[in-house]
Amino acid sequence: MSAPRFVVTGAASGIGAATLAALKAAGRRCLAIDRKPLPGEEFLACDLADESSIAACIEAIDGPVDGVAHVAGIAGTAEAAQVLKVNYLGARRIIEMLSPKITEGGSVVVVSSLAARRCAWDAARLREMVAFSDWREALAALGVANLGGGEAYEIAKRLLLAWLPLAASSGAARRIRFNAVTPGPVETPLLSGFRQSMGEDRIEAARSLVGRHALPEEVAAPILFLLSPAASWVNGIEIVVDGGLSALREAAAA
Hints:
- By secondary structure, the chain is α/β, with parallel strands linked by helices.
- It has one domain (6-249): NAD(P)-binding Rossmann-like Domain (Rossmann fold), CATH 3.40.50.720.
- It is 46% helix and 15% strand.
- It is built from ten helices and seven strands.
- It has a seven-stranded parallel sheet, sandwiched between helices.
- Helix 2 (51-59) runs parallel beside helix 3 and helix 4 packs across helix 6 (149-171).
- The longest helix is centred in the middle third of the chain and has 23 residues, at 149-171.
- The relative contact order is 0.15.
- The mean pLDDT is 95.
């Protein structure tokens, strides 16, 4: 396999598919990663809940890679261990293993979630959890046996943001940038799962406050910006892409 220029995970649907389409429309060559095959695309299969699957996927990628859009994730309808593996542990592992193949000055963008705000852990606890690299030890420390899928989703997305400064530090010597995009509800196939795990009332309240949910293309746009040279001085930060939902909630509570 010849070297891809951009890697997009979760590329088969939703925000990942929109990101893949936008990159290709801009003339970028892309490698799509997903559990589901994408006919006609340069594609590798990967199960982010499986450490050996991640290792095999990375082994099959010939560098260099200019940028990574890590979009893959699952809703909190799955059991907690699966949610934490896919949305945090697997996300972190695939990026860390891929990092040596990223070119100097490259860019990595991860997708978090506004649901991360519901994880009220303090900085000390977040640092403690982020320090774990062994999956079994991490899951035990997180108390996975006592978590529901919805809570695990909030924790996983919060840990992804807590890991972001460490990732930015690890890439600093080669000027590799690490940033996050944090959307609210988005019209994707996962939305029905979020309605189930987070509650219909909560999802509908967000829609009522803003007027609608985001389109996948509206979240893909800031991902493309962060991957581009135009964002060369943007590093280690989170861009909230929620249509003003957070601000409107704050104003309503004032």
